[in-house]
Design brief:
single chain, about 130 residues, alpha/beta, five-stranded parallel beta sheet
């Protein structure tokens, strides 16, 4: 409960290196920030993700990885998050819809292509 919880439970393959830089900026600009990220079930992929964050001088003690969650626990996690982050490059469609359904705040940075514009489209539909 301590800190500001930023949650991104999108599959690890959606986390582009550009998104890593955005995550590190959040951690640097918000000293109370804590990140919850989806853990890869492939150990080699998980190590690559950790190395990428380490190479950007991310404060790794404020980054937490969670395995795949049952749907009801994922929804609870979104409801407890301060912010749900949409991945950059390949955004979330189902993830964003589910987070918005339970009233979570989803932050997105839309791209020029469809795969990175789902969250923007949902916000357009609801008039935000």
């Amino acid at each position: 409960s301590d800190g500001h919880w930023y949650v991104c439970m999108q599959k690890p393959f959606k986390r582009h290196p550009k998104f890593d830089k955005l995550l590190v900026q959040i951690l640097l600009k918000d000293p109370e920030a804590r990140l919850l990220l989806h853990e890869s079930h492939v150990e080699e992929t998980q190590q690559i993700m950790r190395r990428r964050l380490f190479s950007l001088s991310a404060p790794l003690d404020r980054i937490h990885f969670l395995p795949t969650q049952p749907h009801h626990q994922l929804m609870a996690l979104y409801s407890l998050a301060d912010v749900v982050l949409d991945t950059y490059g390949a955004g979330g469609c189902t993830t964003t819809r589910e987070a918005l359904e339970i009233g979570a705040l989803v932050v997105t940075l839309p791209t020029a292509y469809l795969g990175g514009r789902w969250s923007l489209a949902y916000y357009g539909i609801i008039g935000v």
